[in-house]
Here is the input.
Amino acid sequence: MSSTGSIREKLGSDYDVYEKSLRDAGSSEYALVKEPAGKKSLCVLGPERDRFTGEEKNDGLKLCPLSWENAQELMNAFDWLEPTLPSPEPSFGFGDRSGLATPGHERALDGYDVFPVFAQQSIREMERTGRSPEDVMNTAVWGVFEEGYESGFAADADHLKSREAVEKTAEVGFNMFTCDPSEHVNPAGDRLSGEELEEALRKIDGGEELLEEYSGRKFSASLPEHDYQFASTFQPEEVKRAIVKYFPAVKFAVDSFAWVSEARDDRFIFEVSVDETETPTTPLEHVFVAKELTERGVELFSLAPRFVGNIQKGIDYIGDLDRFEEQLKAHAAIASSFGDYRLSLHSGSDKFSIYPYFAEYLGENVHVKTAGTSYLEAIRLVAEKDPDLFRELHDFALERFEEDKATYHVETDLSQVPSPCELPDDQLPELLDRDDPRQVFHVTYGSVLSQKENDKFVYKDKIKNLLKEYEERHYELLESHLGHHLDLLT
Ligand SMILES: [Zn+2]
Here is the structure.
């Protein structure tokens, strides 16, 4: 029998053992270790090592690469490494584009009652960063093991637009599925009128019946603890708009829910997100979508409406806060009347001024997704530790900016982006505190991380090497910045 601690003795002082990862299971001992050359490995001591692939050392030790194969074996030994269904607390998505951020995210959670999503990536993000669902899952699992985070986490296959994407992510263990029906949302529903609107309605199967069902119907919902009441009557014109705009999307979401159910039985949670659509989701549109989804058997964990105001990537909310608060109250009351699903805030990075409203009106029924803000902390580390690389990245990002911003909602003013060549080294990290430079980096992450020359990554490896070299500082930056997010949300 081994007892926790023998790995350290047997490996000797050339190896760093990640203290919080040390575990006993059965008759073997496990730890994440850093080899003298800086590479991280799983170390297994004892008979269980035969189940892992790796390099056999002396004294019953084996050093195993952080492969997906080994991760799955480790998940068999420790069930807390597997994604689980969330607890009732607010939930928070920590997208990790570098694959190295999870331990920092775990530290940020310390002291907060928040359920984390550590693996969270859309197919679009995976394509842009050259990653696979398996890789996203794999890096999250090793990050969880490194910090010994036993409290549970979910894995969110974000912005799913096809059955194939559902199946691919389900296969590697994702357990939160975010359906993005935005390609089926018809924004013209807001603009059309008269005969054009009638025409669009006629093209929708079941449209006339829905019009009859909803027109003139009263709907009310409340937040008793806030003395708030939402009440409205569906006018025929707005019913037509809602049907034209959202009904095909509802059908796609219903199909998606069936695909996920088939792939995962009942071991999953499901979100529907219409955040990436042109116009805000009105309260009555929310009622329409929620009612149609629930009546068709879709069990919602969360719904991401398109909120009012200007929700840009990587910076705080821009817009009238009173108006936001009023709309949020209506959405919160509606969500509670349909069975208490969560409202989900996408592009949640740095939306500090609206977090308190979510905490106030939704309590635990809130989900937030972030990703860019963690990438920007990695870039901050580059600014701190390798000013020349930072300047290089900045030039490249500026070159890419016009093209890359097309798929994002940003209104960056490039005249407000100072040239890092003219700034002294010690002023570079502060650029990451300013909206416009933040967005230049935010929208170009895909280009930065995937740029290749002679089949080799130009920047990705340099950035990752730096994050590994200054690992503690990277974790510290994440802990502090994401901790600030959690602080305002709870
Ligand atoms: Zn989104």
